[in-house]
Amino acid sequence: MGAGNNYAVLHSKVVSRPGAKDRIAELREATLEELRLYELRLALGRSQTDLAEEIGVSQSAVSQVESGTDIKLSTLRNYVEGLGGRLEVVAIFDDVDEEHVVQIQIGETGPRDART
User: Fold this and answer.
1) I need a surface site. Which of 3, 50, 105, 115 has the fewest CB within 10 A?
2) What is the dihedral of CA 41, 36, 72, 50, to 10 degrees?
3) Which pLDDT tens digit goes with each residue over 15-48?
4) pTM of the model as a whole
5) Is residue 90 left, alpha or beta, with left meaning phi > 0 and alpha meaning psi from -120 to 50?
6) Spatial contact of 6 and 15, defined as CB atoms under 8 Å apart
7) Is pLDDT larger for residue 60 or for residue 2?
8) What per-residue confidence (pLDDT) applies to 115?
9) Residue-wise over 52-70: b if at least 16 C-beta within 10 A, else e?
């Protein structure tokens, strides 16, 4: 029996267990949530090539952004704006009494100290 046959046998055993299809669907959904840029682009009906043309980069650069784990904010902003959106960054500070949420606008200029 080849490796492909072993996988097929194992796969059929796994999916035949009670509740397996639901667990597999949940795992698939959780995995897709990790691919939000990819899913966002697909939901908007855009190809990597179309988006690349829109933001002036190569298709492989778009692919790298979608699969990257350490993306520059400027790159992410260009990606989102190329899809017609606006990037907003939120910082969450946990406090003893409550959670503080601060929305950070990227690229906007203004006073450095809000107390002035």
Assistant:
1) 115
2) -10
3) 788 887 887 777 766 654 554 788 888 888 999 9
4) 0.56
5) beta
6) no
7) 60
8) 39
9) bebbebeeebbeebbeeee
